[in-house]
Amino acid sequence: MFCYQCEQTAGGTGCTKVGVCGKNEDVASLQDALIIGLKGVAAYAFHARELGYRNEEVDAFMHEALFTTLTNVNFDLNDMVKKVLKCGEMNLRAMEILDKANMERFGSPEPTQVFTGLKPGPAVLITGHDFLDMYELLVQAEAAGVNVYTHGEMLPGHAYPELKKFKNLVGHYGTAWQNQKKEFDEFPGSILGTTNCVLIPKESYKDRMFTCGIAKLPGVTHIENRDFTEVIEKAKTLGALPEKEGGILTTGFHHNFVLSIADKVVDAVKTGKIRHIFLVGGCEGARASRSYYTDLVKQIPEDCIVITLGCGKYRFNYLELGDIDGIPRLLDMGQCNNAYSAIQVAAALAKVFNCGLNDLPLSLVLSWFEQKAVAILFTLLHLGIKNIRIGPSVPAFLTPNVLAVLQESYNLQLITTAEEDLKNILG
After folding, report:
1. Residues 65 and 129 placed together within one structural domain of the fold
2. Is residue 307 helix, strand or coil?
3. Domain assignment of residue 140, yes or no
4. Which residues does [4Fe-4S] cluster bind (predicted)?
5. Domains contained in the chain, number
């Protein structure tokens, strides 16, 4: 453990074996887990609030849970476990109101093919997660004759009717957050970072990068009140982008769409045409071990479907997996918060087959990097979902004892190799 939250901390630096207060390493671990999960809940609740949605119970839990982690408040290991699972429930509600807010403002997402090359004309590249920023940029850039490209978790924005209607939303550029220094350096237009997943820029593009909202970077111009005039003017001074050929990515398989073809999916499962459904998604990162997710999807048999979400999809969303009786084998549901869509689809299938979530021919293989992914994991555990595989490494804030509790209660497993995990999943 490492706790330095009070004045009495050991040696004035931090308690590493047991707290001066009597707190053991497992309670400290659960406090850390709770705070990390709350950060994920905050991200989704923040976006929902910007769009006019809030949930009083989520807000109240944030206060209660943070209070619980104060010095000398709660030393009960079992109660802290309950708090962590409650955090998962509140994250589910936060994702639900964000989904409703996005649909009310931008329409229900629909499957959409997205161009990944470049088109002639001055352009802005927008990254992050905030669709309201994206909408306002599109409005202002359209009036100025400037094109807009998405990056990272903005890709799903192409699937929302009120965003895709803009003719100046011309394509998607680049991949996930960890590649942005290389990709932003090579992009010849201006760049706008809207929320999390921004990196300190290289000097080579710092003068054409901007931030807005909650995102801020040293030496980078910050835009207030969504007035993107400076971003657009910078794009115009940089000149027209050269034309460049590209491929196609498909996104927008929101639960509303998937449930509209539920009869086809159910029939394909009942007749054996769809043997198994894999949810492979989460965060992306730079570790070489993340090639596991590419290997896994490449080796998943042709009679199986892959659902994905979050930026982890960039490990394999360029693959051509084909379809099963017209049902695409790769279904990109959107941003990480669209884990809510995956949950809705799973719940609907369980209802049709009159079984529990754990009885479905469904396996979850997740990648984690930061706090939002942790909150989603807590949501899945709150729902009682078992046999989840997670990687590429064990979260450092979980002590062996806490991890053992999760493994015993939920059979939470670490990924091994693509070959071994597929063998164990499919039998």
Report:
1. no
2. strand
3. yes
4. 3, 6, 15, 21
5. 3
Judge whether 87 is annotated as a binding position. no
Asked if 221 and 308 sit in the same domain, the reply is no
Q: Is 15 annotated as ligand-binding?
A: yes
Do 155 and 249 meet the contact criterion of CB atoms below 8 Å apart?
A: yes
E strands in 161-309: 169-172, 190-193, 209-212, 221-223, 248-251, 276-282, 304-308
Asked whether residue 153 is marked as a ligand-binding residue, the answer is: yes
How many CB atoms within 10 Å of residue 8?
A: 11
Tell me if 372 is assigned to a ligand binding site: yes
Answer whether 189's CB lies under 8 Å from 235's CB: yes
CATH number at residue 422: 3.40.50.2030
Annotated binding-site residue? 129: yes
Annotated ligand binding at 6? The verdict is yes
pLDDT band at 223 (very low <50, low <70, confident <90, very high): very high
298 is in an annotated binding site: no
Range of the domain at 100: 10-106
With 0.85 as the threshold, say if the pTM is over it: yes
Per-residue pLDDT at 196: 87
Q: Annotation-wise, does 212 bind a ligand?
A: no
Q: Is 311 annotated as a binding residue?
A: yes
